[in-house]
Amino acid sequence: MTDASITTQADGGDAEFGDYIALLKPRVMSLVVFTALVGLVAAPMPVHPYIAFCAILFIAIGGGASGALNMWYDSDIDAVMKRTRGRPIPSGRVGRDEALALGLALSGFSCVMLALAANVFAGLFLAFTIFFYAVVYTMWLKRWTPQNIVIGGAAGAFPPMIGWAVATGGVSIESVLMFLLVFMWTPPHFWALALFMRSDYDDAGVPMLTVTHGRPTTRRHILAYTVLLAAVAFGTGLTSIGGPVYMAVALVLNALFVIGAVRIWRRDEVMAEADNYKVERGFFKLSLIYTFLHFAAILAEALLKPYGLGGW
Amino acid sequence: MPLTREHELHRRRRGLNTGLGLVLGAFVVLVFLLTFVKVTSQNLQFPDNVPGSSAATAGEG
Question: Which of residues A171, A204, A236 is at a domain's end?
């Protein structure tokens, strides 16, 4: 922290320790931790519990670092949107240069420490993920294409692959399918939300599919991604990380999800407004537990394996 | 009465400094335990114990 920041932060008050934690987007970190943990536990190679703990911690810090870089670059957007106006940078408690420094320092720190604790491949994979989220998504594509949700979803989908790489030192069909599970889930999840919540992104100049291509197109996109997602979910169940528990969970959730997507596709705005977007809201609520339950089922299969119960 | 007067800035930043101190202390403990686990793990091989390494062959001669 420089002396200059003392004066620049006078308007928003002094930064507390919690403001620097907020820069790391703790809620996003919790999803990163869970999916990376599942990827690590589901992998066929055992990892020492303490090394696993350290690896997950460094992956979480890497995720947090990319969050800080995102807040640094997007501080102009954050200042416009109601939802993000209270964040540390737009509120004036933390300077932009500080967020950039924290993001860069933690990026380097997390990748090097993960490489030392686990393996070099995992460290490089984490570095690629941070680069993808901070540069490819945040700087290049977020403000340029309405497919930004799809690209952002890819960045959020890498953690289970990194967890798998921590244990195995590489990539395999199972880890790619775990990636696809999050990647395919992200667009229907966010576009369902965009249908019933008028987004501040319009004011901030960020292209959203609902605005650039209209709501009927968004509804068709939701259905297409949901059908592809179901195929990925069942495909995952046929690999070594699947099993009867996973398949039962996937069967129920994907049936409900596809039914929800078809109902969204068949509706128009008049019907949706008449019941205050009841179907879209229900679909969004289901999407919140969809990923969690799929990864929990993969975790359950891995934990049941030593007792001869998990897997095929 | 303390010899030096505490600056008001230090008082305001106490929470931040305490948090940072705890994080750094936790990092030291984390790396110490990580080193301990790595060193005591069964598959750890020092260069002079790896078959075919220059240190191992030099010892044989």
Answer: A171
